[in-house]
DNA sequence: TTGCATATATGTATATCGCATCTAATATGG
DNA sequence: CCATATTAGATGCGATATACATATATGCAA
């Protein structure tokens, strides 16, 4: 169908010209504004539990502490784009699951000046992250996920030696919010597969869900529930090089 | 128990002094930053459905369109505080249910300059809002909530004459996100009571839930489910001045 | 071949949900 | 005063989903 363009005068009433003039005069720097950043909690799962990428800060503030990958938001950059950029530049990863989490803006959360951070979380399988890890210069911290109960509060992180890592800013709270969000998502989605390779066993998926929820799940119910979502399908293949009976490998439909 | 203060030298290592010096030199205005605002979707429910407070914009940009109450975030103001302030100054309401929703930051969502808005939503009963409405200068717009399906997209608003209202900025998308959030919350919480007076009937609560979900609910299942949450209790009183059998009035426990 | 660890199937009790039916309370109209 | 309309609330039952237990099947190693 062909659109018949109306004369500009009909589509540009007086108000628009007035508004355009207003915009010309507008001075964005007339009063001070908080700065805006994004921080990304990049999670993966292995047999030892949930892990998150943290980077040692070389600069002030909080030099020497561990921080989630983040960056300031560019003047013409979408929030999602900034989060992807932080993930790419500081974690060396692209194309992974990424979703906005919550915006943290306590006035003194950054000692420099007022910085509001839009927190994101990203999920990736362990093999992909392991491959990208050396270039990032960061480490994977274990998340000490509390069993049961609420996790709106902070979640601490530990290094390979199980010693507690001091996180910068309010990043402990961001990790706590991620765990809480994931727990909510599990109720209606097998989201755990984002933390696994393309092909995985139902047992692997159950372990991921158990780690996130912090409690054991019934094997049969879990299997039925996952298959009932209709989001998974069998590949027909089986595990290789396992000591006992190899389990069937599944993948996510419609990818 | 008495705390024995350690000498300052033990608690203030060299790194902290170095960091303090860094903070002195830090210039927050070294590069341009987006502005940060909050917008609040203030919802209530009556027999005709969900309604939201919208205010006619007297100034540019989008002069003449309808907008959610909002404000820029002060330099030393928490996000929640800014949202409460917007609700108080532009809606005349305090102490209502308020929760952060999502942060919208598309680069061109505000024609003035880059403005990132942290969207909140607030829930209040119709009587309270009706009392505060005249002073606000705004109107209550009906939300045209789609039946079933996803509502991540925009939700349009209509005036008393059922004519579509042109909303400013991306406020249609904010309303869509509110509906989506509420639908998710209903699965595990009788959150609808926030939209009702202190004492309400189960039938009222069901109507609110049906409006939000956009589909009818089974009366008995709803009643059983609500009472099973343990969050409601009977007041022992009944409705007044109704035409047929008066229903029992309930309230939320632990308030 | 045997035993082990896991996958997969079957069975059962319990909880939940939807639907139908029944009773209760109130106003209205004769 | 009484029948009736209408809504509130309770009860019962079948279908479904879930947790838990048990049984069978599979593949590998010793």
Given the C-alpha coordinates, what overall shape of chain A results? globular
Mean pLDDT of chain A: 84
Largest interface: A-B, 40 and 40 residues
User: Could you name the CATH class of the largest domain in chain A?
Assistant: Alpha Beta
Task: Note the total helix count of chain A.
Answer: 7
How many separate domains of chain A? 2
Oligomeric state of shown chains: homodimer
Terminus-to-terminus distance of chain A:
34 Å
CATH homologous superfamily designation of the largest domain in chain A: Nucleoside Triphosphate Pyrophosphohydrolase
According to DSSP, the number of beta strands of chain A is 11
- Provide the CATH topology of the largest domain in chain A: Nucleoside Triphosphate Pyrophosphohydrolase
Using only CA atoms, what is the Rg of chain A?
Answer: 23 Å
Q: SSE order of chain A in H/E notation?
A: HHEEEEHEEHEEEHHHEE
CATH architecture label name of the largest domain in chain A: Alpha-Beta Complex
Helix content of chain A: 25-40%
Structural class of chain A: alpha+beta
Give the percentage of residues in beta strands of chain A: 15-25%
Poorly predicted tracts of residues of chain A = 1-12
Query: Biggest β-sheet of chain A: count, sense, barrel?
Result: 9 strands, mixed
């Amino acid at each position: 169908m062909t659109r018949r363009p109306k004369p500009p005068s009909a589509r540009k009433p007086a108000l628009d010209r007035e508004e355009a003039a207003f915009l010309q005069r507008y001075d964005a720097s007339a009063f001070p504004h908080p700065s805006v950043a994004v921080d990304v909690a990049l999670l993966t799962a292995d047999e030892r539990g949930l892990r998150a990428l943290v980077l040692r800060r070389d600069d002030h503030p909080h030099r020497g502490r561990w921080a989630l990958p983040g960056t300031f938001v560019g003047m013409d950059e979408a929030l999602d784009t900034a989060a992807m950029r932080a993930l790419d530049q500081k974690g060396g990863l692209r194309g992974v699951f990424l979703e906005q989490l919550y915006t943290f803006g306590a006035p003194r959360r950054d000692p420099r000046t007022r910085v509001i951070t839009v927190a994101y979380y990203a999920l990736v399988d362990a093999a992909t992250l392991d491959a990208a890890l050396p270039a990032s210069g960061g480490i994977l911290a274990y998340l000490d996920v509390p069993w049961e109960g609420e996790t709106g509060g902070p979640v601490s992180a530990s290094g390979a030696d199980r010693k507690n890592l001091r996180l910068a800013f309010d990043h402990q709270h961001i990790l706590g919010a991620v765990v809480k969000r994931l727990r909510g998502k599990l109720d209606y989605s097998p989201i755990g597969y984002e933390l696994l390779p393309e092909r995985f066993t139902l047992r692997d998926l159950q372990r991921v869900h158990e780690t996130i929820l912090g409690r054991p799940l019934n094997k049969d119910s879990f299997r039925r529930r996952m298959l009932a979502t209709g989001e998974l399908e069998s590949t027909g293949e089986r595990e290789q090089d396992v000591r006992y009976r190899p389990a069937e490998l599944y993948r996510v439909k419609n990818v």
